[in-house]
């Protein structure tokens, strides 16, 4: 309803006797919002900060300006050319910069933002710092969009299409993968997401949106010069996204509207108040940013949304065709085989020629005192760390040379010692990330909504896994609001969504209350009865002794005992390791 009102208001604004000034302001808000929407995807959702978006706006503007003024080509060809050039440039830049992490990434974006800006200002054929004039208006089905009012419709039509496309994308298999990028990417890779590729895709989409904004700008202004495409503008775009709420599609619109109106008002007010001319609004923006980062880090949209009627989250269908499942190996056959696995960190041998086997349908516990090398062993099996020497085989195939996403593809699901969830996303959607490799719909299918059938199947499976672990009643809750015990179970449901034949659990009982541990043990027994193999690293002796079929004990990276829990319990070497020889 509110969305409909918004569209009707937009449609009426140019017809009503709205002053030209407000129409122009509305046009600018729309142009900025298109760029900020790209930043929502890239920075807010994907977690990659970019200061360089203005340069892509420039590419879109200059491409059409040059082609229409020099060759007399149609603005639409200018748009296609701009998109092609931007996609190529963004792909090349993204392939280099998206691999950077921490503060190197924003620094990288500043570097290419500046480079493109100076390129625009120094190329003779682009008119150097004077730019290009005489850009023709856009023709739209025989209608020449000469006035600001006519451009208003085109600009806001693009904004609405971009909003819908982005919302479609975010509520899909690819969208969940993009959301999982935020952070180290370890969880995303463990669920089968090719994080480097996904980051480049986000980068290219954000750049294309910026390019479209530049194209619209060029045909609205009918002239371009390098000034609006510099680093300052890049920072302002980021301001808009962050102020509005970088993690939210509507935050981009809110931020662009607020900052554009505020900037305009401050530009006329502050010089009068202070008695001299200057960019004083930037000081106010700076202060505003500091205040916002203190008070409302996620931006203003989440605050505003709290006052609006709540929307129903993503729901799983009541029924859908089940996803195909992989064949289970025969119970008792060798599932995982670790052969002389060794891991050295400099001079420290964290895992010392370890050997053990996990059979199909058994629960194997890997235990040992602190620093014994359990987590390192776990990381070797899951492909997080490379082996120094040795081999790891899964169902007869070597997996020690594969990245995490290829290991999960072969049927090894995992959980994390420190839970890795997307706290603001629903429990159902968190679990559905696990089904990533069981779907194939890409970004285009998500945007165009041709992925709906597959999406229903993925969500149905996620709901089924939630039901299997006993969390179905929490499907619509935010994952971050769950108790730790429930979050650990959620991670198991997510791992089950990968359709694994081997489940690797890293300290699943850590931080759980007694009752929660009992429930977890019951769940793992049920999974075992269904034919699943489970390898768990655990500290809690009671939990391990009552649950596992066999135990492997490590100390100083070496296997010191292996056998039934009752045998291991009385093994002198194990008692020595745990109790230091105390009787
Ligand atoms: N990335 C690393 N670089 C250097 N040393 C490391 C690294 N990771 C682990 N270690 C060292 O390897 C040894 C084994 O550590 P690991 O974390 O695997 O033990 P653990 O049995 O899992 O211990 P805990 O039960 O306390 O988690 C320790 O001495 C640890 O300090």
Structure commentary:
This protein is an alpha/beta fold and 583 residues long. Among the domains are: 26-230, no CATH class; 334-422 and 491-579, Rossmann fold, CATH 3.40.50.300. The chain is 54% helix and 12% strand. The protein is built from 23 helices and 14 strands. A six-stranded mixed β-sheet has the order 10-11-12-7-13-14, sandwiched between helices. The chain has a four-stranded antiparallel β-sheet with strand order 6-5-8-9, with helices on one face. Strand 5 and strand 6 form a beta hairpin. Helix 18 (452-469) packs across helix 19. The longest helix is centred in the middle third of the chain and has 27 residues, at 195-221. It is elongated and about 85 Å long. It starts with a helix and ends with a helix. The mean pLDDT is 91. The chain binds adenosine-5'-triphosphate. The site of adenosine-5'-triphosphate (ATP) has 11 residues, from strand 6 and helix 14. It is a multi-pass membrane protein.
